[in-house]
């Protein structure tokens, strides 16, 4: 099941989604997390879709890649079991107020607590800015997100402006 994870915001663009899927296949990624996909296929066992179609976890065709099993679908996220890993894909709109953003984090935290098996990967587009992950203009959402992650014992893998490979 070893392999890398590809994460991207596809901005609802068909060509971006085609490139994302081609990259999954050609580069042998085990898993992909797509924020704002163009159009997730209906009832595909390789796709777990949440957030009203705004976030998807996509199982790659890498050798030994286990099946996806949807655990929970929320307004801004989808959680799936992928072998021994609980994967949570996230897309949250940048238009949320700080109070709405905190409510989203409460819902996401509830999901994480309800599915505490083995390893956990939370990835996607949180639309929050913090110097911790290379943003030049931090915002309140970034500070709240960093505190939330620390409170749950989550470790940020992206540090500074370097790309993150999982």
Automatic annotation (TrEMBL):
Highest taxon in the source lineage: Eukaryota
InterPro entries listed in its UniProt record: Endo/exonu/phosph_ase_sf (IPR036691), Endo/exonuclease/phosphatase (IPR005135)
UniProt xrefs under Pfam families: Exo_endo_phos_2
Protein name per its UniProtKB record: Endonuclease/exonuclease/phosphatase domain-containing protein
Record domain Endonuclease/exonuclease/phosphatase: where: 85-164
GO molecular function: catalytic activity
Regions that span the bilayer: none
């Amino acid at each position: 099941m070893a392999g890398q994870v590809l994460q991207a915001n596809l901005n609802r663009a068909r060509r971006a989604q085609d490139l994302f899927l081609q990259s999954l296949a050609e580069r042998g990624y085990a898993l992909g997390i797509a924020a704002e996909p163009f159009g997730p296929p209906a009832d595909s066992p390789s796709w777990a879709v949440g957030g009203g179609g705004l976030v998807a976890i996509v199982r790659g065709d890498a050798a030994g890649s286990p099946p996806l099993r949807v655990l929970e679908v929320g307004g801004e996220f989808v959680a799936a079991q992928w072998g021994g890993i609980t994967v949570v894909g996230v897309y949250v709109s940048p238009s949320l107020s700080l109070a709405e953003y905190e409510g989203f984090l409460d819902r996401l935290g509830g999901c994480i607590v309800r599915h505490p098996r083995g390893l956990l990967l939370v990835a996607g587009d949180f639309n929050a800015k913090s110097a911790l992950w290379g943003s030049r203009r931090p915002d309140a959402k970034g500070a709240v997100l960093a505190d939330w992650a620390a409170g749950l014992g989550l470790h940020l893998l992206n540090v500074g402006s370097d790309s993150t490979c999982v």
